[in-house]
Design brief:
35% helix, globular, 11 helices, binds oxa(dethia)-CoA, 24% strand
Length: 319
């Protein structure tokens, strides 16, 4: 058995901050941000929490799939910015959607989290432990940022995306995942929230990143792991209809496409609108592709994520 996607959903907060808005806060400008990242704006949570956004994305996935929430066995939420350490966001999603028979738990692998949660769900389904799994990526990055640091605050946004996987007969799913803990210092975040830090005036508590280090890592490791999965599947790059990559920076995606020698139109992007929503980028993009009628049965989709840890993961499945 494999997990087939039977519904997708996403949610972003209505409040939009464009590059000009940011230029009023830090020394930056629209031209620099667009040129170096491809980002035009980001949606920023005001009162919306991570688990609220996850719940809204989940409700939309349920309504698109037509399944009864009571059928869901498991809810996995990939997040590194939940408003509570516990209860986990997945249990709050369970309450919101009424998935009374599900077990829920969160996974944290930063921006790679959704792809790893998707792989975890596939493993539960293929082992026969679950039949219907809700997989969500949700993050409120705006709570983690130092809004005086132009090197990081321009990059991120808030949002959530969800997919429902249902056990079915089908083509096998192929996956790979790696970590390099030695490179942990390249991207760090202490586990507390902005409002506490503001009181303490402690800048060390915000997200810290070696931008160029992460950039080089991503450009090397994303093509490598895609090739690794293809080798396992005994398939070629030409067999893949879409490469759905973590949306961190347009230049990273373009560099990966170039290294792989695959036309850029096979790499859909939406970071102009949402920026980097961490674990939410891949499922938000999948939802937009599904609702935009870009996807049809039998297409081969490659997911690939990368981020703090450092971690990177990929998954190849049939739509
Ligand atoms: O999910 C994973 C999360 N992380 C990532 O994906 C990050 C990956 N890295 C990146 O996307 C890029 O490294 C950045 C977008 C963060 C930075 O782009 P870059 O091309 O590596 O720029 P840089 O850090 O080398 O900075 C170039 C110049 C510097 O000025 P000088 O020293 O050349 O005078 C920076 O001070 O640009 C300056 N700069 C800015 N200027 C205007 C840095 N940030 C800004 C800014 N606005 N926001």
């Amino acid at each position: 058995m494999v997990g087939k996607i039977c519904g997708t959903g996403s949610y972003v907060p209505p409040h939009v901050m464009d590059n000009d808005d940011l230029a009023r806060i830090v020394d930056t400008n629209d031209e620099w941000i667009r040129e170096r990242t491809g980002i035009g704006k980001r949606h920023i949570a005001e009162d919306e929490t991570t688990s609220y956004m996850a719940g809204q994305a989940a409700l939309r996935a349920v309504s698109q799939s037509g399944i009864d929430p009571e059928e869901i066995d498991m809810i996995l939420v990939a997040t590194s910015s939940s408003e509570t350490v516990f209860p986990c966001a997945a249990c709050e999603v369970q309450r919101i959607i009424g998935a009374v028979h599900a077990v829920g738990y969160d996974l944290n692998a930063a921006c790679t989290g959704f792809v790893l949660a998707f792989n975890t769900a596939q493993a539960y389904i293929s082992a026969g432990f679950c039949k219907t799994v809700m997989v969500i990526g949700a993050d409120s990055m705006s709570n983690l940022l130092d809004w005086t640091d132009r090197g990081t605050c321009i990059l991120f946004g808030d949002g959530a995306g969800a997919v429902i996987l249902k056990a079915a007969e089908g083509e096998p799913v192929y996956m790979a995942a790696h970590s390099d803990g030695k490179k942990g210092p390249a991207l760090t975040q202490l586990s507390r929230h902005r409002k506490d830090w503001e009181n303490e005036q402690n800048k060390e508590s915000y997200l810290h990143m070696d931008g160029q280090g992460v950039f080089k890592f991503a450009v090397r490791k994303v093509p490598e792991i895609i090739e690794e999965v293809l080798e396992e599947a005994e398939m070629n790059l030409e067999d893949i209809d879409y490469f759905v990559l973590h949306q961190a920076n347009k230049r990273i995606i373009e560099a990966a496409a170039k290294r792989l020698k695959v036309p850029i139109d096979k790499f859909p992007m939406n970071l102009e609108e949402y920026a980097n929503t961490s674990a939410a980028t891949v499922p938000i993009l999948l939802d937009e592709m599904a609702r935009g009628n870009m996807l049809c049965e039998g297409q081969k989709i490659m997911l690939a994520g990368f981020g703090a840890g450092l971690t990177w993961a990929a998954c190849l499945f049939e739509w």
